[in-house]
Amino acid sequence: MRDRKYLDKVRELSCKICGADDGTIVPAHYSGHMSHRLGKGMGQKAWDHCVAALCHSCHQVMDSYRDGNSKDRAITFLIAILETQKEIYEKGKG
């Protein structure tokens, strides 16, 4: 499930972890616990609607597993995805 228009909208948001709005925002595809349920597989990213708007720094932290692949990391990532989806939905209604 790929959606270039959705990813472009995500790039317009602020970081859903630290709040940065510094021009480095990217749609970060979910990786972590149960990611296979969201389309992730070998050489395959999760679905495009399973992304969080993250700045360069937060994206690096999430991609590096610096603190391991804990459930807390997964929860932080999933909440950021939900906040991203919520903001996109609200902007679309306006």
List keywords for this structure.
single chain; 94 residues; mainly alpha; two-stranded antiparallel sheet
Alpha-beta content class: mainly alpha
Span of the ends, CA to CA: 25 Å
Helix content: 40-55%
- Radius of gyration (CA) equals 13 Å
The ordered H/E elements are: HEEHH
Overall domain count = 1
Provide the low-confidence segments as ranges: none
For the biggest β-sheet, the strand order reads 1-2
Work out the strand percent: 5-15%
- The gross shape turns out to be globular
Description:
By secondary structure, this protein is mainly alpha-helical. It has one domain. The chain is 41% helix and 9% strand. The chain has helices at 4-10, 56-64, 71-93, and strands spanning 26-29, 51-54. It has a two-stranded antiparallel ribbon with strand order 1-2. The longest helix has 23 residues, at 71-93. 26% of the residues are buried. The mean pLDDT is 91.
